[in-house]
Amino acid sequence: MKHKGPPVFSQEERYKMVRAIKWVDEVVENAPYVTTLETLDTYNCDFCVHGDDITTTSDGTDTYHLVKAAERYKECKRTVGISTTDLVGRMLLVTKSHHERDETKGPNKNDLKEVGLSQDGRSPYTGTKQFVPTTKRIAQFSEGHEPKPNDKIVYVAGAFDLFHVGHLDFLEKASQYGDYLIVGIHSDPVVNRYKGSNYPIMNLHERVLSVLTNKYVSEVIIGAPYTVTMQMINDFKIDAVCHGMTPILPDVDGSDPYEIPKEIGIFHRIDSSNDLTSDMIVQRIIRNKFLFEERNKKKEAKEVYIENMIRKQ
């Protein structure tokens, strides 16, 4: 709160989310905002890594100045369009009514089209940059291993928008139904059909990468069909199909998308004991609209400053 403005997730939610990232071995709770050498030594870390976007304290101090001075700092290039600030920016100027299922209360379609066609890849309304996916990027996130001959394969599907601890708890329980978890992620138009308004907040490729970071997930089907067919079950050798406790909306023809799995006895409802939803995340932003607007203004001002410094060099 002091240095960056309000976090979207609580500290306990953030600890849990980071622990479930497949590249993470250990989480240091209540870590100092300015990384110290003592922290590195306590946890046997050789160096600290951060993206190439400058991070400062509330008084403008470089948060990594101590580890940089000791030559125990490494930097990696930040992926443009992927940040909490960018995601928050997509919701900041959107009122509560924009997230209702009543399309007549949604944002102006022409305005949304203009945002999508912005030539510089930057939204004129929120200042967010669009994420441009590549096959290389997806490959970096993918496990790349096939299921073993005797593995029991589990399939789940959904939007997985604004990936959060509710999704995490569901995926953890779904993974317990077998050995190899496949997640089907619905396309943007499909999600928009059953969520309405300007959902999803994250585009398909962003949602794919978010799910692929999770240690319980073995494979992702990009743009998965809404209805689980027998052909799909046979092609992927699916042994169990799971769904959470959220309502199951019918497909465009009025049919039950899980009719086949139910008929052959492989369908399971999962109670993750976590009622957090993407809608609730959006409402957190809207309730603290002013604070998040201030946070993003500061972030944008810093980015402009950095861009100007780079031009001068």
UniProtKB/TrEMBL annotation:
Residue ranges with Basic and acidic residues bias: 97-114
Domain Cytidyltransferase-like: 2-88, 156-249
One Pfam family of this chain: CTP_transf_like
InterPro entries referenced in this protein's UniProt entry, alphabetically: Cyt_trans-like, Ect1/PCYT2, Rossmann-like_a/b/a_fold
Region (Disordered): 97-129
Coiled-coil residue windows: none
Alphabetical keyword list: Lipid biosynthesis, Lipid metabolism, Nucleotidyltransferase, Phospholipid biosynthesis, Phospholipid metabolism, Transferase
Cellular component aspect of the GO annotation: cytoplasm
EC id: 2.7.7.14
GO MF assignments: ethanolamine-phosphate cytidylyltransferase activity
Record-level GO BP terms: phosphatidylethanolamine biosynthetic process
Pathway entry: Lipid metabolism; Phospholipid metabolism; phosphatidylethanolamine biosynthesis; phosphatidylethanolamine from ethanolamine: step 2/3
Claim: Methyltransferase is one of the keywords in the record: no
Family under the similarity heading: Belongs to the cytidylyltransferase family.
Protein name in UniProt: ethanolamine-phosphate cytidylyltransferase
Organism: Paralvinella palmiformis
